[in-house]
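pinning this so it doesn't scroll away 📌
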Amino acid sequence: MAGQRLKTVTVAGTFDVMHKGHWFLLDEAFLIADRVVIGITTDRFATEMKKPHDIDPYKVRLNDVREYLKGKGLLGRASVFPLDDPYGPSTNDGGIEGILVSEETEARAEEINQIRVKKGEKPLLIFVMKMVLADDGKPISSTRVRRQEVDRYGHLVG
């Protein structure tokens, strides 16, 4: 597989307050595959996840992802969809070959593959990305950025 990219990989998230971890996740997805199917949680689904803070509206988060991809010249290789459940098209889209997840969501990828196999679909290749750490050695997260512990680049604030 060396030097060979997949045709299509999927990645998903809330993408609230875009930060270095999100940028690395998206960049990695485009290194893995020619085409990236990106799920962004809807406002309803994000609310169900009970984050410990407010989340920017879907349209803002969608725009942030699109602007980032546009700036990198990757928008033409992406298809973005509103994610309204934990799986999106990953459990039944035969065109998706791989899934990129963070360490904290690896179990969900395993669950997706169990569902695919039961339906007679090929399991997805699972790519697990390490969490991007802030200067203090703890993962960068939207929650930490919102709490003003770190900035979007993982630098300590204050």
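📌 and the second one:
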Amino acid sequence: MFDLKFDTPHGWTEAVLANFDFFLQDHAAAEKKASVMAVSLLSHYQDRTKLVRAMTDLAIEELIHFKQVLKLLTARDVKLRDDTKDSYIKQIRAQCRNGRNEFFLDRLLVAAVIEARGYERFYLVSKALPEGKDKDFYMAIAKSEEKHKNLFVELSYEYFDKEEVDNRLEELLIAEGEICASLPFTGALH
């Protein structure tokens, strides 16, 4: 449906593989936060029936993903770590404009862009892992993120004019690319 403006370099994948336990901890935190974000959207926009149904399903799916990552952590005898502020998320969310409709549109499109970045990076992880359950898991997670990215754009089209959505999405993609280019590789998802 859309393409990111910044391609994650190979160095990011190397950082992930160098400390995969840290990546798993960060992935678990990201799934928890994604579930909370979906609940927040359905809570703030209860009058949007299609959105409420979609975000209910998404919140459940993200919690299932959290549980799956927690299982991987447990198998490696790795504990969850305290949630930390994610500079990428903070900077991309700062792109949201004020105003009821503008903020609503931006929340949907920022979520689409975040899911698109998740798709790209989970796909890179799946390609880098050796054959086995972890590789299969990350390929499935990548496909799920791609589906979510498209869901948020489809919801945007449901509530806003297509040209307005497309123009704002382009602006956010440019900003997101600049954000990614400025951040160091830590082995975290973002």
